[in-house]
Structures are given as structure tokens and as C-alpha cells.
């Protein structure tokens, strides 16, 4: 037994020595072979995972060429101008919209309520949200175009609160020229609708100007329906609607397609964010204001067209900053552009959209753009930021087609007439140099008879001259920059450019 144990111990010692010398026997050899096989299999797997260099290059190329997944697009953006006769409730309605959409908190409202009460103007507190300067709050009249922002589920809106007083019509024109859609605010209070609608009232003039300036869609909100003289009366609402519809048609609106009437109370917010309670107004089955705004469809804009941004304001802030609405094309940070008509080449340093910095912006957006290459004093309101490859025309004389909407006291319109021209953000004195031909309103064709003067309702082609170079486009190419208004002492002419001519500055 002792001999067998000794033999076994010697065998074990021998096996350990062989193993340490790299010689494998028995079970040890089997385990090592299995380990080597596993290593070979792992190596094969690695070789299969790593593609050859050509395949790597192909995949890298495909990754570069593969379009990046689209980032979720922003909500659509619309500019909405509030227009109408003085005291119709435009600023109050705008302020109520901001409150209902969460842009203004309760504490701020309480502060404005106290301020209005101290001035013995308790019902004005909502207007203080839009009317921010002391002059406007003291007099209760909007002077400058107020600007604010709010959102619904589908749309971002920029509110443009236009002044209603006839002394500030040029400011109203400035606001309407930036708008996509209009909200015409009419007071239902006894006597107030009649004052605004009568000849010379701002309800009529604002409608005509809005249509002329390209505001193609109109919401007519009959405000102050909760007033004791109205008390949500269907008869009063129907009376206002029946008087407004023929006038809107005569101003060029397609009432069935482009106009919607609805009753509201801007002061208390009835029928604005949610539909009015049936107990308050049992006869109304239509939408509330927010629903109506969301449902409005406007024509799509071309983000790939030549860039056009009429400048409405400028200031200094770490460089030269300009403000305006993009009418065509898109702009990106780092772009080289042109300021017309002074032909200054500039570079875009930063873009701000609705107070937020952005790398790129498209048509319809209200922007602040920081530029290099130009000083603030070298820019005037009415200049246009545009693409270098396709700059806008700068002219001192052009041919246009005019429709005479209203001449006071049966005056005549003839060569030598002087007026004020409003086109995009330009306000410039002009003179009618020559009447070229009169257009038959029925056939829309030129009349053969030579024309020396025309009266109310006439359509005429004429040459217009201005003192300084202005930026205009053919109406057929850019309706937004080829549509304009002439005014003098309350007279209004709807017009559009037919072609730029003579003394071109570019």
C-alpha cells in the first residue's frame, strides 16, 4: 500500500513539473486546448465585427450624406393687428388676451387695478398691459403701436395694438403693414358704434387701410356686449353685423371666406379663451376668440425666396440692432446682407425672435438683428435689409395703379396732387407727376380717352415721384412690398406698383 501511494505522489510531482515546463498531459492538456479554441472563436468574432477600411469609409460617407432627422418644428407664427375706432376697447381686449394666456400674473393685474383706480379710471386697468407709457395711461389713448406675444395650442401670435385716434393714423398704418390678420374691434355700446362708423370715423378708415395694406383676413369682434345698454342683445349684434357687411364688401373683403363676426367682452374676458356661457348669451353658437384665431388660415410663405426685411426701428445694443418683419426668404447668423437704399454691406451677428436668441429665422417672424458693418445713425425707418444676390429696387419715381376710395368735398385728383405715401415701413411725401390712363372698373381694361383728372371710385394708372430714394418692388413679384397707400387730409387711395421706372438708384 505504501509503495502504491509513493508511486502516485511521484506521478503528481512529475505532472506538475511538466506543466511548469510547458509540457501538457492528460486532463490539463484538454483544458488548455479548449481555452485556445475559445480564444480563436473570439478572434473570429472580432474579425467579423470590424469591417474592412473601404466598408468603413462607405459607412462614414453614408452617415454624412444621410439627412439629419428634422427637429420638431416651431408652432406657426402669425402677426395680428388690433384696429378700430378710438375707445372701442382694442388695448383692453389685447391686455385680457395676455392675462388669459398666462403672460401676465394676478399680482401685476392687481397693481394695474390700483393704479387705474387712483386715476379714477377703474375700467382702464386691462388696457395698462398694452399701453405702457404714462401719456397713454393718462389720456386713455394708444399712441405707439403696442407689441406683445402669446401662444395657443397651435400658434404663436404677435399682437400689434394700433392706435385708434385719427391723429395717429400713420402709426396705425405702421402696425397694419406688419400684420398677417386683423381684429377689428367694434363697440356695441349705444352711440359708440355709430360714431366710429359714420363718415370720418376710424372704423371705416381702418378697414380700408387694412385691406390696402394686405390684411386679407379679418375677425370683427363686437365688444362691450356686457354693457348695460346692450346686455348681450342679439338685436344689437345683428344690427351692427348688417351695417358692416355691405361696407366690408365695398372695401374689397370676401365676407363669406375672409371675415368672421363674434361677440365678446374684453373687460371681463367673456367668449375669449372659452365660449360664453349659454346662461349669459343663449343665442351664440359660434367659436370663442382664441378658437377663431387658431382656425384662421393664411397663404404659405416662401422661405427660399430673396431675403426682404423692411426696417421699422433701430437702436444701439452691443452694436447696431435693427427691428422688422421678414417678408420673404430666411436669415441665418453669419449671413452677409445688404441695407438698401444706401447699399451698405453688413454681416448678421445675432438674431432674436420673440426675445429668444435664434440661429435662423424665416418669413413672417418679427426679428431683432444685430449687424456689423454699419452705424445706427446710417439707418432710417423704411430702409430694407435684403440679399446681396437679389437686392430690392431703390427708386425716386415709379408707375402705379391707384383706386380712389374717398376724396373729401368732391375734390378732383389730377397731376400735381401732393400726398403722403405709406409703403411697408416708409412714410414719404410724394407728388402725382402724370395721369397715364384710366381703367374701366367693370372690364378692368384701359379706357381709350386721355385722362386729365378723376373723381371718387376711379381706378387710374399714374406716375408718382418722391423726394428721396425709397425701396419698392413690383406688386406682381412681392405684393407686400408693392402695395401702398396715399393719404392727405383724410383722403385715401388704395394702390399698387405696376413697375419701377425712371431714376433707379440701383
UniProtKB/TrEMBL annotation:
Segments carrying the region annotation (Disordered) are 1-27
Q: Briefly, what is this protein's role?
A: This protein promotes the GTP-dependent binding of aminoacyl-tRNA to the A-site of ribosomes during protein biosynthesis.
Nucleotide-binding keyword on record: yes
Q: Which Pfam families would you find in this protein's record?
A: GTP-eEF1A_C (PF22594), GTP_EFTU (PF00009), GTP_EFTU_D2 (PF03144)
**What does the sequence similarity comment in the record state about its family?**
Belongs to the TRAFAC class translation factor GTPase superfamily. Classic translation factor GTPase family. EF-Tu/EF-1A subfamily.
Keywords of this entry: GTP-binding, Methylation, Nucleotide-binding
Q: Which residues form the Tr-type G domain?
A: 75-301
Q: Does the keyword Nucleotide-binding apply?
A: yes
Signal peptide stretch: none
GO-annotated molecular function: GTP binding; GTPase activity
Q: Under which name does UniProt file this protein?
A: Tr-type G domain-containing protein
* PROSITE patterns for this protein: G_TR_1 (PS00301), G_TR_2 (PS51722)
Amino acid at each position: 500500500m505504501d509503495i502504491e501511494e509513493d508511486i502516485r505522489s511521484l506521478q503528481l510531482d512529475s505532472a506538475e513539473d511538466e506543466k511548469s515546463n510547458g509540457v501538457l498531459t492528460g486532463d490539463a492538456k484538454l483544458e488548455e486546448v479548449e481555452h485556445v479554441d475559445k480564444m480563436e472563436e473570439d478572434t473570429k468574432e472580432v474579425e467579423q465585427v470590424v469591417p474592412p477600411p473601404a466598408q468603413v469609409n462607405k459607412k462614414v460617407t453614408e452617415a454624412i450624406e444621410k439627412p439629419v432627422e428634422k427637429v420638431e418644428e416651431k408652432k406657426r407664427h402669425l402677426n395680428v393687428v388690433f384696429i378700430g375706432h378710438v375707445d372701442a376697447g382694442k388695448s383692453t381686449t389685447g391686455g385680457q388676451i395676455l392675462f388669459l394666456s398666462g403672460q401676465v400674473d394676478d399680482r401685476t393685474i392687481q397693481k394695474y387695478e390700483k393704479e387705474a383706480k387712483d386715476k379714477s379710471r377703474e375700467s382702464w386697468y386691462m388696457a395698462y398691459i398694452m399701453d405702457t407709457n404714462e401719456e397713454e395711461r393718462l389720456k386713455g389713448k394708444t399712441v405707439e403701436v403696442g407689441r406683445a406675444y402669446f401662444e395657443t395650442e397651435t400658434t404663436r401670435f404677435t399682437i400689434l395694438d394700433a392706435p385708434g385716434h385719427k391723429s395717429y393714423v400713420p402709426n396705425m398704418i405702421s402696425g397694419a403693414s406688419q400684420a398677417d390678420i386683423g381684429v377689428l374691434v367694434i363697440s356695441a355700446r349705444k352711440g359708440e358704434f355709430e360714431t366710429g362708423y359714420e363718415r370720418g370715423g376710424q372704423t371705416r378708415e381702418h378697414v380700408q387701410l387694412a385691406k390696402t395694406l394686405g390684411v386679407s383676413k379679418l375677425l370683427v369682434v363686437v365688444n362691450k356686449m356686457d354693457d348695460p345698454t346692450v346686455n348681450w342683445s342679439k338685436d344689437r349684434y345683428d344690427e351692427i353685423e348688417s351695417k358692416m357687411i355691405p361696407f366690408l364688401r365695398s372695401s374689397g373683403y370676401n365676407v363669406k371666406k375672409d371675415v368672421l363676426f363674434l361677440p365678446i367682452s374684453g373687460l371681463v374676458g367673456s367668449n375669449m379663451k372659452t365660449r360664453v356661457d349659454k346662461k349669459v348669451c343663449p343665442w351664440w353658437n359660434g367659436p370663442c376668440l382664441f378658437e377663431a384665431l387658431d382656425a384662421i388660415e393664411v397663404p404659405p410663405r416662401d422661405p427660399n425666396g430673396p431675403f426682404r426685411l423692411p426696417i421699422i426701428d433701430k437702436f444701439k445694443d452691443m452694436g447696431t440692432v435693427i427691428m422688422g418683419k421678414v417678408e420673404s426668404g430666411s436669415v441665418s447668423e453669419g449671413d452677409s446682407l445688404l441695407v438698401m437704399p444706401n447699399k451698405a454691406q453688413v454681416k448678421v451677428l445675432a438674431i432674436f425672435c420673440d426675445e429668444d436668441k435664434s440661429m435662423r429665422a424665416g418669413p413672417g417672424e418679427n426679428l431683432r438683428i444685430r449687424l456689423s458693418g454699419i452705424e445706427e445713425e446710417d439707418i432710417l425707418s423704411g430702409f430694407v435689409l435684403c440679399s446681396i444676390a437679389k437686392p430690392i429696387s431703390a427708386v425716386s419715381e415709379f408707375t402705379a395703379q391707384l383706386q380712389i376710395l374717398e376724396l373729401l368735398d368732391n375734390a378732383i385728383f389730377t397731376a400735381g396732387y401732393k400726398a403722403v405715401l405709406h409703403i411697408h415701413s416708409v412714410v414719404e411725401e410724394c407728388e402725382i407727376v402724370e395721369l397715364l390712363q384710366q381703367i374701366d372698373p367693370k372690364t378692368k381694361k384701359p379706357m381709350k380717352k386721355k385722362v386729365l383728372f378723376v373723381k371718387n371710385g376711379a381706378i387710374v394708372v399714374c406716375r408718382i415721384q418722391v423726394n428721396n430714394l425709397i425701396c419698392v418692388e413690383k406688386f406682381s413679384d412681392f405684393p407686400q412690398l408693392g402695395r401702398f397707400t396715399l393719404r392727405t387730409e383724410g383722403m385715401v387711395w388704395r394702390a399698387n406698383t405696376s413697375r419701377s421706372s425712371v431714376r433707379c438708384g440701383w
